[in-house]
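Risk register update: the risk of archive-format incompatibility is retired. Evidence:
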Amino acid sequence: MSLNCGIVGLPNVGKSTIFSAVTSAPAEAANYPFCTIDPNVGIVAVPDERLDRIAELIPPERKIPATVEFVDIAGLVKGASKGEGLGNRFLASIREVGVIAHVVRCFDDPDIVHVNNKIDPRGDIETINIELALADYDTVEKRYQKQGKMARVSKEAQKETEYLLPIYDKLMKGLSDGKSARSIITDEDEKNAVYDLHLLTMKPVIYVCNVDENSIGEDNDYVKAVKDIANGEGSQCITICGKIESEIASLESAEERQEFLESVGLSESGLNPLIRAAYKTLGLRTFFTAGKDEDRAWTFKEGAKAPECAGIIHSDFEKGFIKAEVYNAEDLFKYGSEQKVKEAGKLRLEGREYVVQDGDIMFFKFNV
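Archived output:
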């Protein structure tokens, strides 16, 4: 799975506004469809209060957070699977991301046109989902035909075909009804069997409700409709006011941003939950290194072992890996210093088979 999050939705729902706020990098935005054609890409710091607390207890010269990549993909329209509105180009961009952040317009504003001339979150979501499902149907159908021909090559190919074709049949039936591949294929072996198809609707989705200032802190009827859909799919749903987030992003200092948040009754930017959700949905986790020079959050894939995580810092660390000194950030917070963590017996040596845990603070020993 690609380690990035693609922001998608119909035209004029606020995708580029939210992308600009998330990345604090201006994306082209205007009051007409297809303003964004080539996808914008931004690297975003992952909000993590653990890094701030580590820096208080182990003061460094610099502090470096983990990051995640966001991609702003142009608006899809009905018929995109058949090339409408530059659909093929946009669908190709979605195929390259690991998680989809589906922005849904949940506000009324007569000055901002809607591509369908009405605010209808359920209909908007259905439009996107159907187009993605139809694109996947074409992908599966082509593979079905190709696999059928492969059965003539050898007995091994015939055996593989006998296993795959019923899965493809099941997919095509569900996709033709507008269902997502992730709801059709739930068995892990079957997921592995269709992985190389890179199906759009197999990707996890985070629904992002873009609301106006009057709906901050409470769910309007549009948001409730989106949450019903998200709950039914087992997907996450996050509410953001794109207009306010863009105003926050334009402020220069952290103090100004905090004052603005307090003035509108928010404890943190609404973008933070989105960034954290994208990071975790991608299967990404964080380990830390800490010292007087630098406190740093490092990103790793859940399930990675110690040598692999050492290689994230430097390839030589992985090649010459010997041991890792490990304790968890929660132990540091509990005992107040690294020395007290050691005295409490919470610091340990781990070898090559150690599966790194989210929040581990690590010091790698290596020899090259």
